[in-house]
Amino acid sequence: QTVLQGIVLLPLRAICITFLLLLAWLVASIATFCQPGRGFLPLEGWRRRMIQTTLSGLTRTAYFVMGFQVKVKGKVASLPEAPIFVAAPHSSFFDAIICALTGMPSIVSRAENLSTPVFGTILSSLQPVAVSRQDPDSRKNTVAEITRRALSRGQWPQVI
Predict the structure, then answer these.
(1) Which of 37, 77, 111, 128 could make an S-S bridge to 132, C-beta 3.0–4.6 Å?
(2) What is this structure's pTM?
(3) Which segments of the chain does DSSP mark as H helices, in order?
(4) What is the number of H-type helices and E-type strands within the chain?
(5) What's the pLDDT tens digit per position in 105-114?
C-alpha cells in the first residue's frame, strides 16, 4: 500500500509544485512589469502587497504540498524593530520558508541567481542585494547597500 501511495502521490505533488511555481513566476512578473526605478527604488503599493501576500502564500502552499508543516512560535519582528535579520546557516532551500513566513523580505543573493529561468524572475521580485563574485568591490558594495536599505526608515522591506 505504501508503494502504491508513492506512485500516486509523487506525480501529483510534482504537478502541484510545478503549477505553484509557474503561478509564482506569473505573480512576480506582473508585480515587476514596467516597474519604475527597477532595482534602485523599492516596490510600493499594490506591487509590494502582491509580493508580500500572494508570493508568500504560494511559497507556503508549495512547502505544504512537499509535506512540510511549519508553525511559528512567538511573533516575527517588524520592520522598525529589525530592519535586518539573519538566517543561518543559509545553505539550503529551507531559507525560502523563512522568507515566506516573514513577508518576503529582500534577500542577499549571488548575482548569477537572477539569470536563472523562472526562479530568477521570482528572486528579482524580492529586490535582492546582488553579490557578484567577479567584482572585487562587491563585498564593500553589498555592505553599503544593506546599510542604505536598513537606514531607509521603512521604504525598503526588511533584509534577510
Answers:
(1) 111
(2) 0.83
(3) 2-32, 45-49, 56-66, 95-101, 119-125, 138-150
(4) 6, 2
(5) 888 888 888 8
